[in-house]
Amino acid sequence: MRQHRRILALWFARLPTDRLLRKARQPDSSAAPLVISHKANNALYVYALEARAQKLGLYKGQPLANARAMVQPLQIMPADEGADAALLEAIADWCDRFTPLVSLDAPDGLLLDITGAAHLFRGETALLKMVTGKIAKQGFAVQGAIAGTSLAARALARFAPGTIAAPGDEAVTVAPLPITALTPDDKILRALRHAGLKTVGMVAARLHSELSERLGKVFVNRLRVMLGAEEQPLEPRRPLPDLMAEQRFAEPVVTEEIISASLLSLAETLSEILERQGRGARMLEAGFFRADGKVARIAIKTGEPLRDPKVMLRLLCQKLDALADPLDPGFGFDLIRLEALLAEETKPGTVSFDSNENASRQVRFLIDRLAARFGEHRVQRFVAQDTHIPEAAGVTVPAQERDFDGAWILKRRGDDPPRRPLRLLERPEEIKAGLPLAPDGPPKYFLWRQCRHDVTRAEGPERIAMEWWRKEGHTRDYFRVETKEGQRFWLYRDGLFHQIGAPRWYLQGIFA
Amino acid sequence: MSYAELAVTTNFSFLHGASHPGDFVERAAELGYPAIGIADRNTLAGVVRAYEAWKKLPQPPRLLIGARLVFRDGTPDILAYPKDRKAYARLSRLISVGKLRAEKGECLLDFADLLEYRRGLLLIVMPPVDHAMVKPALAQLRVDAWLAASMLYTGEDRRRLRDLKKLARETSTPLIAINDALYHDPGERDLQDVVTCIREHLVLEQAGTRLQANAERHLKPPEEMTRLFHDAPQAVEETIRFATRISFTLDQLSQRYPREPVPRGKTPDGHLRDLTEQGLKWRYPDGVPPNVTALAEKELIFIAEGKIAHYFLTVHDIVKFARGQGILCQGRGSAANSVVCYALGVTSVDPTEIDVLFERFLNPQRREPPDIDVDFEHERREEVIQYIYQRYGHRRAALTATVIHYRPRSAIREVGKVFGLTEDITGKLADTVWGHHGDELEEYQVRQGEQDPHNHAVKRAVNFANRLMGFPRHLSQHVGGFVLTRDKLDWTVPIGPAAMDDRYFIEWDKDDLDTLEIMKVDVLALGMLTCIRKAFDLIHAHAQGGCEPKLLLATVPQNDKDTYDMLCKADAIGVFQVESRAQMSMLPRLRPRTPYDLTIEVAIVRPGPIQGNMVRPYLKRRAISLKDPNATFPFPCPSPEHGPANELHGILGKTLGVPLFQEQAMRLAIVAAKFSADEANGLRRAMATFRHVGTMHTFEKKFVEGMIGRGYDPAFAQDCFNQIKGFGSYGFPESHAASFALLVYVSAWIKCHHPAAFAAALLNSQPMGFYAPAEIVRCARDHGVMVLAPDAAFSHWDCTLERDHKDALCLRLGLRQIDGFREEDAQTITNNRCDGYCGFADFVRRTSLSKRALVTLAEADAFRGFGLDRREGLWAVRRLPDDNPLPLFAPRAAPEMGIEKIAPLPAMPLSEHVLADYQTMRLSLKAYPTQFLRPGFDAEGITSCKGVGALKDGASVRCAGVVLVRQRPGEGTAIFITLSDETGVCNVVVWARTFEQFRKEVMGARLLLAEGKVQKSPEGVVHLMAERLIDRSADLRLLAGAELPVPKPVHRHPRDVRILPPSRDFH
Questions:
Q1: Measured between CB atoms, which of B216, B875, B1065 is closest to A190?
Q2: Do A463 and B158 touch (CB under 8 A)?
Q3: Among candidates B912, B959, B909, B911, which has minimal Cα distance to B938?
Q4: What secondary structure does DSSP assign to A159-210, as a single string?
Q5: Which residue of A has its CA nearest to B860?
């Protein structure tokens, strides 16, 4: 006798909200109900919601604006499909303990082929209870069911959780389920609804030829699988790409030479893996597993995808050297592991003949080395901002971050003198200025840091009004001035004479 | 110290400038400028507005008309000012060339174009940042060219000025000072930034250097300009020299009217006289009454004096063409109700019956073009327009423009984007705006949109939206105002292409043309004319007992008692003009019996009479005079020392001593408030432009005090002026009302005597009128018409009439009632029908309709004629193969599908059928949706609509129904809602205060529960005065027995509002 296949289907009804709520550990019933939003066709929709929100009448697919109107306040988070998928994978990993054949039923379900495995867990009923119970304890809303085919099992998990269809009983068990259990295809669902066929049983009772002429052979096949008349194999999960190299030592290692030697060989192995995949590492982590169970980890980031093992080693060693607390091997490490936590595709490694590009590559390596030594936030670079306000025109970001960019607007034309000073003071410094000749003229002299400067030449004013939508501020008149000593400064008067009585003067920058 | 600003960009440079043209002109006058030039980007659209503001100023600066030419070939911007009329024509032509070359709204110019048309143009070249780039342009222009210099606080102004001086010397071009103004006052800088962001689709936070660095682009005092330019004083002086070179002003534009073909040896006046005489003989076959002859004589003399015979001949020509094509038309307007127009066939209103005296409104001081609007059948107006183009040519005939302004909804949406508000929020704010009107977003609206008005971001956005309101957004074509000239039109005003192929429109709108006294003929579309013509055709085709001649507007039997009786009962759904809620409640009170009564009926429910408190007094007097035709009423009169007590008898006689019409109000100004003709003219203009210029208060004082001073009742004086203000927001003169009254009568007559034809014609002319097809059908059934569902076996595209077995006329709904069904498919069905289809399979084979079309028919339950109900029909259609098999392999006739023996499908409940009917056709003949909710409603103690009518005055009541119509007449303090259920309709009145409290429910609900008190008038008009309103739209879901999405309310015309959401299949 052929053994009936047995499938256990799991459905996580609120995976996205559960994911976020689990983070909070302690459920906070006073917090606003959580809703996950998703943008489609330029409008926001409810993508997922926690049980409390559903009780308040909100539903999946509802326009977010309507949900907001119905329930105030709401906690709204954007959907993160990547994180949801990763979580589902993690649960699938965990399920590996029940059967080696776990398949993803994305985005929010799992299918476990438990054929011949149930007896290990004292029967199907006990197994279903154990699986759902353990997962529920982890903070997931989960529903499960067991049947002979995946379609029947997943339909039961969603619409009649806890059901175990005895072998051969699928057709009877699924008959009362609504037609939405049959297919996600809207067109077919509408066709069935229009025909007045509301349950799986009503559909099953029609002639198959009648159905296939109208709804297609694929649908009829699906129906047959659902009814247990036909089988459909599960698709096993694809293994994750392995971006890791590790070395175990029979005898725990203590000496630095051996440690760096093994790091280098790990880096070479990892480099090969990366090479094969055409990728490069942007974040590396070395784990040092001590014989007594302690683990030390150090991580480095790089500005561009990295594959050269020597550079990997150099960056790691620099980081190790810079540790305030040197790496303490204790009784020695019995395992060293090198992982690429973040990898990116690289362009084929051609060496450019353009010396500029090579030079800029050199700079990036320097940045990586400095960042490895001093910390990534200590090495900064300027990014241009599009604004008239001088002090806001450039902001600093970590030099390794590549996501920011802005074009510097060329304020200078041909052989004109520069309009902005090379050095801008951290904060404009107030100066005492002699009265100007005209209401919008430069001062004749000024006192800065207790020194008197006599203005011999000046150009301006360049009038810059503050960004009214941010905060109020006076309009400034900027002047480039040259003093008797030949120094050049950038001054401004904060406010116009006719607007405020006695505007103050500031020095904001120094020309080279 | 004198200065004239020549570089002014107004908000007619669409999203470039931030002040109205008038603001600039007024500020220039305040600053004592001797002249100001308006130069918008490649357009002359704003100059008339500037001119209008200019005319009102006591000591105006000279107004120079120009344009800022922006080129596509990299040439720097050039300001062009025409010296004289001829040069102006060239500038206008130049802009037209650029516009005709481009897509709608754009203007593409090359430097070469300027060279072609430059004669007589004074040109100011605007140097770009790299000023050396102007050299080649200057070298080619040589004479009449200036180099612009500005001091805009860029930090290097003086260095730049020095360079420009050098450049000017080298090219021997005079330097001229400008401030390149974008707004009249520095305080508008923030609005300018917002406008820039709207134009560039930016969020303020990210706009950065694309905004101006400071607030210097405004009009500056001459002293300030002189101070700024102390390095080059001659540049400031040059502005004055420049201005004196210009002699062109807008009043030099005068229209040269096209010469109508006049027979050899005749003058236009003589020809018009001949035509009038012939026409009178045709109108009065039994002899022309002597008073008509006398009137015609007077009018002809007047026309001859005004030299406007051509205008009448043009209108006559257009109308004659339409008549020849069998297109119904009807003229209206001050000159339309003349004997001449009656004789020419422009109107069918017998001037002896409604004596709207022509000369009274065409007074010689006004020196204004006569105003005749001609309405044509809306479906056939295009033929008339094509005729005009063919006759006058595209360069002599073009449409007027309509300036599209920012309205509350568009303003808040766009400003919201600039401030980074989400569409959620701005959408909600916008949704609380009533209709297209409303001039400001009020705080309560913000609150209704569920936004906290004190929330800083929202408050700021609302504030800017209010400032942006009234700004022009773009130009669009007017529906049918044609400007005709004898010369080329683009010598007077630039023309550009419209969205429709081969259609052009000028840059000025109706008000601009009025300001410049340019004549236009309005060729308008009127749905009711289409409807009437279709009804006439149907009546003719189904007439029993011989073929009577087809009816015409003028041959419909007059003074029909049944028709007036029907109107008096407010049985007026579908009748022209009087079908609105407010009109329907007026009918039983006014009890119209004559054409003039209808004229009053049409005019009385308007903002003017309502705001002037004239409605109630008139109704009172009307009630008395209905009982006693000889009753006399006291007329308002001055004190004896100021004039005869009967001085208003002539003006107000026909309206029982109560002023109701715009014309009467204007006459009151002259007779009672002693306005001079000029003043009256000023008042009329102020009234017409009331919305954008606030000059009314000066007239108000004069008017009210003038009347009180002469001994009139102060309250009456104030009411009269309030009425004038009301006319300002919505003018409705007697002359228009009289023309409309005829159509009211004709449509009512058809409804009364041929209800089936009337309903069919109405449905076939959709979209038009106030009511959804469901109501038209219900009304026809109430009139005893048997209505049959659309059916693939019997229906055509249009609704038709057929005779049932008892030989009664039935209305067969057309396939046009089915949403999403295409006319071509209906045509295919009709063409292949022959003697009828024998069954569904035969139908499918012979029509070879697409599967989509078949599904649409099945969903609409249109296969009953083949014995298939909705479910069976859909199931059968689904069996058919999908469309578009490879044509090569498709056999000529699809293979017969095997006959199938299948089990019957579960029967569809009636409620679901009704639901599906509404989803596919927005009406159901099977039942009314509320019928299925009735048991629940009964349990809740909710009264049916019919039940409300049976209650006593003052009774408390709860009534629920589908919202048919929501209306807020004029500035109305009340909102009218019509609810409907399976028993009838219920008229709900919501006072403005209650409305503000329940705005969301009123605006959004499709099924509404109203709680309040019954109010019954002596005439039997029943209203439910609402105190509380509850949105019960969700109840409609119960019909489906399942979850049914209720979409967000979208503001639509009431006839398009869906009671139930549309079907989503295959769409």
A1: B1065
A2: no
A3: B959
A4: HSTT-BPPTT-HHHHHTTSBGGGT---HHHHHHHHHTT--BHHHHHTS-HHH
A5: A194
Q: Which residues contact B111 (CB under 8 A, 6 or more apart)?
A: B71, B73, B75, B137, B140
Complex confidence, ipTM? 0.71
- Among partner residues B158, B204, B208, which is closest to A469 by beta-carbon distance? B204
pLDDT in tens, A197-215: 888 989 988 888 888 888 8
* CB contact burial B3-42 (16+ within 10 A = b; e otherwise): bbbbbbbbbbbbbbbbbbbbbbbbbbbebebebbbbbbbb
Residue A315 pLDDT exceeds 90: no
Looking at residue B172, the DSSP 8-state letter turns out to be T
What is each CA distance from B548 to B285, B402, B543, B558, B560, in whole angstroms? 20, 44, 8, 17, 19
Structure tokens at B331: 């003229």
Query: Among residues A416, A473, A272, A215, which one has the least CA distance to residue B878?
Result: A215
Determine, for residues A388 and B211 on separate chains, whether the beta-carbon distance falls below 8 Å. Answer: yes
DSSP state, residue A240: P
What number of C-beta contacts closer than 8 Å exist between A and B? 105
The answer to whether A382 and A401 have CB atoms below 8 angstroms apart is: no
Beta carbons of A459 and B158 less than 8 Å apart? yes
**Where residue B224 falls among pLDDT bands split at 50, 70, 90?**
very high
Share of chain B above pLDDT 70, in %: 90
What predicted TM-score, i.e. pTM, was given to this entire model? Answer: 0.71
Condensed to tens digits (0 to 9), the pLDDT of residues B591-638 reads 888 888 888 888 888 777 877 888 888 888 888 888 888 888 888 878
Nearest to A144 by CA among A90, A186, A95: A95
Cα–Cα dist B248/B253, whole Å:
9
Contacts of A386 in chain B (CB under 8 A): 206-210
pLDDT tens-digit series, residues B916-961? 888 888 888 888 888 888 888 888 889 999 888 888 888 899 999 9
Q: Look at A67-76, A86-95, A183-192, B357-366 and tell me which has the smallest mean pLDDT.
A: B357-366
Could you write out the three-class secondary structure of A313-335? HHHHHHHHHHCCCCCCCCCCEEE
Cα–Cα distance measured from residue B956 to residue B648, given in angstroms and rounded to the nearest whole number = 46
Question: How far is it, in rounded angstroms, from Cα B935 to Cα B926?
Answer: 18
Distance CA B870, CA B910 (A): 11
Contact between residue B177 and residue B166 where contact means Cβ atoms under 8 Å apart: no
Cβ burial B212-226 (10 Å sphere, 16+ → b, else e): bbbbbbbbbebeebb
How many residues are given for chain A? 512
CA-to-CA distance for B110 and B73, rounded, in angstroms? 6
Q: Are B507 and B496 in contact (CB under 8 A)?
A: yes
Of B159, B427, B1065, the CB nearest to A459: B159
CA B874 to chain CA centroid, Å, is 42
DSSP code, position B328: -
CA separation for the pair B942, B601 (Å, rounded)? 35
- Compare all CA atoms of chain A with the CA of B190 and give the residue at the minimum distance: A468
CA distance A17 to chain B (A): 23
Partner-chain contact A409 B209, CB within 8 Å: yes
Cα separation, B427 vs A65, whole angstroms: 10
> What Rg value do the Cα atoms of chain A yield, rounded?
34
Distance, CA of B608 to CA of B619 (rounded, Å): 15
DSSP string, B58-94: SSPPEEEEEEEE--SSSPPPEEEEESSHHHHHHHHHH
Three-class secondary structure of residue B350 per DSSP: coil
Other beta carbons less than 10 A from residue A77's beta carbon: 15
Nearest CB among B155, B158, B428 relative to A478 is that of B155
Instruction: Specify the pairing of strand A75-78 against strand A295-306.
Output: unpaired
Please list, in sequence order, all residues whose beta carbon lies within 8 angstroms of the beta carbon of residue B692, skipping any fewer than 6 positions away: B470
